[in-house]
């Protein structure tokens, strides 16, 4: 997951997608639902974020239902950043609020 996220942040999108595919395959082999969901989010963000907005929200809601707040707290700001770069501020704000909510739920102090 870290390699995919850092590759994307370094504008190495093809490499990031490659890491996502590899991680998703491994997660399916291990039957790790949380990682499958997280890799699905990254894949959708990296390939077609505007078209996949509702799907990305659903994937993060599934993580929330599974009480994977630490995962959401780590992932949602990256998702928000992608939407911000696209000048989709309302969508970006949704993911930032989700991250803040997750921080609160795990007891992490926020500004």
Question: How would you describe this protein?
Answer:
With 111 residues, the protein is an all-alpha fold. The protein is 79% helix and 0% strand. The chain is built from six helices and no strands. Helix 2 packs antiparallel against helix 3, helix 3 runs antiparallel to helix 4 and helix 5 runs antiparallel to helix 6. 31% of the residues are buried.
Topology record:
Blueprint: H1 2-9, H2 13-30, H3 33-47, H4 53-65, H5 69-85, H6 89-105
Helix pairs in contact: 1-2, 2-3, 3-4, 3-5, 5-6
Task: Describe the structure concisely.
The chain has 111 residues and is mainly alpha-helical. Helices cover 79% and strands 0% of the residues.
Beta-strand percentage range? under 5%
Share in helix: over 70%
Order of helices and strands: HHHHHH
Low-confidence residue ranges: none
β-strand number: 0
Biggest sheet details: none
Globally, the shape reads globular
Name the average pLDDT.
94
Tell me the distance between the termini. 27 Å
Number of helical segments? 6
Structural class: mainly alpha
Q: Radius of gyration, rounded?
A: 13 Å
Key terms:
mainly alpha
